[in-house]
Amino acid sequence: MSKIIIDYVDADETTLECDVTTSRDLERFFSTESFRTEYDVSIEDVPEGILVIPVLAQVCPVAWANGADVYVDEVDETFASALSAVQESLCSMHDFLEGGTLYAKETVDVQPDASGESGLLFTGGVDSTCSYVRHREEEPTLISIRGWTITPDSADDEKWDHLRSRTTSFAQEHGLETSFVESNMLSFLAHPMLLAHYKRHVDGAWYSSVGHGLGLLGLCAPMAYARGMDDLYVAATHWEGIDLEWGSRPDIDDHVRWAGTQCHHDSYDLTRQERLDAIAEYVDDEAPSLQLQTCNVRMDGNCGECEKCYRTAVGLRLSGLEPTDHGYDFEHDDYREIRTALEEGRWVLGQDERYMWEDIRERTLEADPSSVAEAAFFAWLEEADLDALVADAEPPLSHRLLRAGARNTPARVYNTVYPAWKSAKGSFRREQAK
Q: CA separation (Å) from 90 to 4, 132, 208, 373?
């Protein structure tokens, strides 16, 4: 019988550590690492029923993908109920998920020590900044997480320093508190093996398509309990009318809760352009020097040349803001570069980007261009076949063969070979780009 057992949960000052045991068929999906998360507030007095939430939030989707059951000594009854609702939503979204049952020796009615605080997962991008703007009267604690897009590896130390610095500066300027969470959740899971088995079922990677809504929110549970947070917000990526298989959606995040804390998938009622409108109104009223950080290339500012930088700059102009005032070097001549890059397929675009350029296109139909270059770009975008601009999402044959082979390869072999192969491929690409 397929199963995952949470057999050790410990809190030492600010560090959470958990160990799991699995049936042999699931061993390949877990590394030899213990699950560890570091907080910046003491979690020693947090009940075990809450302490177990971060590891459950990572392992349960893996269990559901394999029809496995999960066993734990103690869990908060509010979160146990939430897991059932999240499981139903994820299984409805992904056909390959089979489901499973959570078995607890004791389901505990943990009593919260709520203080009326709120928290917001924050990066400084369009979505999380819009969520701050909408909830600024609550003075939410800004929460930045290391473990997904910024890994715990020392190679990412500089990126993490930049994110911490940006979040801290924003918080100081707005009289807010911060919270920084660091976890090994993706190296605790054998993420390469999860990709090998399930990449063919999803548009993105495992964590983006399946795990990150429940995973990131659940990671915050001990900290939120210790701080007495009533509400925890995660900004929406998509909006109403976009039905993509994505791991963070209202029908996932709004179900997540534990004693004293309710999570919220925020600003789903606004398109990305409307979120920029909300930011523009806030800039006009209160924050004329507000800086955004959305770049896919850099963490210490925006490169101004990647697809996301250009897309954000165009969106800012459509909302009445000058991009150069808010972190983006942008000139009207850049419209020609955007069109060329889109037509030549220089950027790998997915359905996310197609919807976002469609959102921009709808706004351009109402806009009055301020230059010949802008007018020409708007006219081109109105007629552009956005579906044709979206690159084929299927990975190269070499990737598909590697993952197919991995499904019949011993986990210890694949988990060693895949990172080395990936590093070699990255080095080759960098050399080719010089």
A: 19, 27, 13, 45
SS3 32: coil
Q: In this structure, what is the dihedral angle of CA atoms 83, 88, 93, 95, given to the nearest 10 degrees?
A: 110
Integer Cα distance of 35 and 11 in angstroms: 12
Q: Which two tokens stand for residue 257?
A: 């809760």
| 278 alpha carbon, distance to own chain's centre | 22
**What span, in angstroms and rounded, lies between the C-alpha atoms of 202 and 91?**
13
CA 14 to centroid of chain Cα atoms: 23
What radius of gyration do the chain's Cα atoms show? 22
Q: What is the pLDDT of residues 152-211, one digit of tens each?
A: 999 999 999 999 999 999 999 999 999 999 999 999 999 889 989 998 888 778 999 999
Whether residue 182 contacts residue 37, with contact meaning beta carbons closer than 8 Å, is answered with yes
**pLDDT computed for residue 199 by the predictor:** 87
For residue 413, the model assigns a pLDDT of 52
- In the structure encoding, which two tokens stand for residue 39, read together? 């907080």
Residue 270 and residue 17: Cα distance in Å, rounded? 38
